[in-house]
């Protein structure tokens, strides 16, 4: 085994996922590669149907049985693709924790929050009921749930949305996972609560030296919370790099389009938003060649011929576009570093 | 302003009774709205922002006369919507229509687009099928859809197109006011911009007024002439977007502004203060925001601040408004 300090915690190589949808088989994820060291954070950005959640679910081994996964996912050097379900159960909630988007559906309404937070501890760490309960109270206290000793026997419906999300965070953290996957953890929450939850996640990631994959459609959330980011569209990574680098000089027309389409504070009434024409395509009928070619303002015939390769445009900053000479001449990006 | 306002809301209060918890005590009440007064002039837009539980959706339902308020009045074009007969109200509905948040839940999956869009009209008018179809095709073109879409079903459309259909349905009666409850929050970012631009075009074209309910300050800033910030059933600050976002006078508005994630290279993590959540049911004295407010003192906890004038069209309910306005500016995006 290589030195654990330099070896990536998780290494994903050429990941592909094929799903059976109602419109026929669809390649939901194509050629996704990345690796994360301990303590590093990675953001995945994109709109609905771009493959970001499918990527996360394939790391968790939670894809439907009919899905075909190709490529490789290595956690500390051991292969996860094709792992038997029983072996995956030993990893999920133990070495990989996940926070889901909608806390009301992620929690079981029939069980007390105490039991739900204690469950992974009982299962993976073989704690006794009393030990697990004590640990659950400590976890709920850490995530900032008021008065956890008294509220541990309450049911999910007795909590507000922000409090429920704190409970699911406590569940994800119970066994001290090495990798935390947060799939749109704050989309269902108010903007002020969103800030608190993101702060909490950032503190915990730092405190426990975890790696994190944060999935969001909000460029602002990504800009403030992760070291590196990947922009996905149509199942492929169209741009990736250190967050600051990508925001300073956006290379892909899709990233630029997303950035320009956001309504910005301080943009007065009467200004027009720059839109991306068309809509997000169904995964079953993606265009050939570059997945963004149907909506791209810079498209040329060559774009439709083949999927463009990743082009290095800066230190660690790659763009999957053959027209970066034109797109990057416009210098779209957010202010100065 | 000389002309009478299009929408005139006065001292609106709405209370909901909670389920009874004890035989011997009266059931608790939720004060969803606590005396809200606001006016919207013809052709202008009002944005209502606030967190969940601030009463913004209750406000929308009362403006649409979908519920009767506990007290106060809602007047549209000078008519008090709660003191006219059901039949008159049905006919008055021609002038105000609603667009809902979820374009998947708000369109009947078993009806064709032509029937969905024509429905508000069929309740109001007697006419033959060709006339209706003619009207439907006009509004569909106004929202950027085609005649061929008339005989399709909702599942054949994407989220953004469905929201266009919902807007077409609201437009068909040629309303003066459209109440939109989070119209773009269920849409993808790239499509959100298309729908917002459409709403702006329609306003210019038909002189519509919008009451736009949103939790997204940037969306409100983009589309509205005036913004009201609500907290626990009260308007805590009201004014033009530039007043609110550049010279905000209420600590709650400031907290909302500061919480918006910014896209800026090298921004890194910004720390936010911890905030307690206040209760809606307690009939507490003093400023309802005092528990979360970093500036609150004894006076704030004892005396409820009234909305007071701070600028030409700028109101805020805070004892320390001047101090808040003097604080350094919350950074905007370039």
UniProtKB/TrEMBL annotation, chain B:
Report whether Transport shows up as a keyword of the record: yes
Task: Provide the ABC transporter domain boundaries.
Answer: 18-257
One GO molecular function term of this record is: ATP binding
Q: Where in the cell is it found?
A: Cell inner membrane
Spell out the CDD domains in the cross-references.
ABC_NikE_OppD_transporters
Instruction: Name a GO CC annotation attached to this entry.
Output: plasma membrane
DNA-binding is among the record's keywords: no
Q: How does it sit in the membrane?
A: Peripheral membrane protein
Keywords of this protein's UniProt record, alphabetized?
Answer: ATP-binding, Nucleotide-binding, Transport
What does the record list as GO biological process?
peptide transport; transmembrane transport
Report the superkingdom from the record.
Bacteria
Functional description taken from the UniProt entry: Involved in beta-(1-->2)glucan export. Transmembrane domains (TMD) form a pore in the inner membrane and the ATP-binding domain (NBD) is responsible for energy generation.
PANTHER family, A to Z: D,D-DIPEPTIDE TRANSPORT ATP-BINDING PROTEIN DDPF-RELATED, TRANSPORT ATP-BINDING PROTEIN
Q: Please give the name of this protein.
A: ATP-binding cassette domain-containing protein
Which organism is the protein's source? Bradyrhizobium hipponense
């Amino acid at each position: 085994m290589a030195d654990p300090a330099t070896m990536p915690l998780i290494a994903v190589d050429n990941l592909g996922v094929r799903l059976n949808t109602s419109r026929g088989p669809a390649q939901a994820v194509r050629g996704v590669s990345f690796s994360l060291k301990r303590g590093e954070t990675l953001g995945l950005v994109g709109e609905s149907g771009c493959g970001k959640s499918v990527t996360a679910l394939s790391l968790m081994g939670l894809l439907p049985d009919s899905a075909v996964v190709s490529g490789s996912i290595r956690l500390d050097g051991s292969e996860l693709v094709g792992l038997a379900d029983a072996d995956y159960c030993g990893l999920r909630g133990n070495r990989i924790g996940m926070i889901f988007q909608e806390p009301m559906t992620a929690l079981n309404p029939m069980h007390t929050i105490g039991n739900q937070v204690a469950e992974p501890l009982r299962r993976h760490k073989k704690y006794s009921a009393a030990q697990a309960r004590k640990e659950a109270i400590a976890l709920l206290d850490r995530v900032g749930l008021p008065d956890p000793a008294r509220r541990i026997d309450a049911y999910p419906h007795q909590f507000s949305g922000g409090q429920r999300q704190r409970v699911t965070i406590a569940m994800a953290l119970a066994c001290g996972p090495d990798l935390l996957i947060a799939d749109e953890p704050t989309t269902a929450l108010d903007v002020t609560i969103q800030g608190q939850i993101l702060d909490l996640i950032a503190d915990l990631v730092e405190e426990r030296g975890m790696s994190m994959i944060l999935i969001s459609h909000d460029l602002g959330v990504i800009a403030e919370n992760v070291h590196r980011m990947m922009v996905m569209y149509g199942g492929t990574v169209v741009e990736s790099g250190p967050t600051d680098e990508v925001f300073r000089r956006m290379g892909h027309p899709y990233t630029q389009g997303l950035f320009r389409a956001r309504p910005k504070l301080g943009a007065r009434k009467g200004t027009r938003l720059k839109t991306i024409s068309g809509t997000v395509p169904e995964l079953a009928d993606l265009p050939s060649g570059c997945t963004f070619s149907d909506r791209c303002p810079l498209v040329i015939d060559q774009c439709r011929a083949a999927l463009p390769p990743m082009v290095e445009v800066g230190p660690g900053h790659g763009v999957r576009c053959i027209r970066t000479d034109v797109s990057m001449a416009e210098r779209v990006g957010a202010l100065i570093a | 302003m000389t002309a009478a306002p299009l929408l005139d809301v006065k001292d609106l209060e709405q209370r909901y009774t909670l389920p009874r918890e004890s035989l011997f005590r009266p059931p608790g009440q939720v004060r969803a709205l606590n005396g809200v007064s606001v006016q919207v002039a013809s052709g202008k837009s009002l944005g209502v922002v606030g967190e969940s539980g601030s009463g913004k959706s209750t406000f929308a339902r009362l403006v649409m006369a979908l519920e009767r308020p506990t007290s106060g009045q809602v007047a549209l074009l000078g008519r008090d919507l709660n003191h006219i007969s059901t039949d008159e109200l049905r006919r008055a509905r021609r002038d105000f229509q609603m667009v809902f948040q979820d374009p998947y839940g708000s369109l009947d999956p078993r009806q064709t687009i032509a029937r969905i869009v024509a429905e508000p009209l069929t309740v109001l008018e007697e006419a033959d099928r060709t006339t209706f179809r003619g009207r439907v095709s006009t509004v569909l073109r106004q929202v950027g859809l085609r005649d061929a879409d008339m005989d399709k079903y909702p599942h054949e459309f994407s989220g953004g197109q469905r929201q266009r259909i919902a807007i077409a349905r609201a437009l068909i009666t040629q309303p003066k006011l459209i109440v939109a409850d989070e119209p773009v929050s269920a849409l993808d970012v790239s499509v959100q911009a298309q729908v917002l631009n459409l709403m702006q075009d329609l306003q210019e074209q038909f002189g519509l007024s919008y009451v736009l309910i949103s939790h997204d300050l940037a969306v409100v800033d983009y589309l509205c002439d005036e913004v009201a910030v609500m907290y626990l059933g009260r308007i805590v600050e009201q004014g033009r977007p530039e007043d609110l976002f550049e010279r905000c006078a209420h600590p709650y508005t400031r907290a909302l502004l500061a919480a918006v994630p910014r896209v800026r290279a090298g921004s890194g993590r910004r720390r936010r203060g911890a905030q307690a959540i206040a209760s809606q049911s307690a009939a507490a004295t003093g400023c309802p925001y005092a528990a979360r407010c970093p500036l609150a003192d004894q006076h704030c906890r004892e005396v409820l601040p009234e909305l007071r004038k701070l600028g030409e069209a700028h109101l805020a309910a805070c004892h320390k408004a001047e101090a808040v306005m003097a604080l350094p500016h919350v950074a905007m995006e370039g």
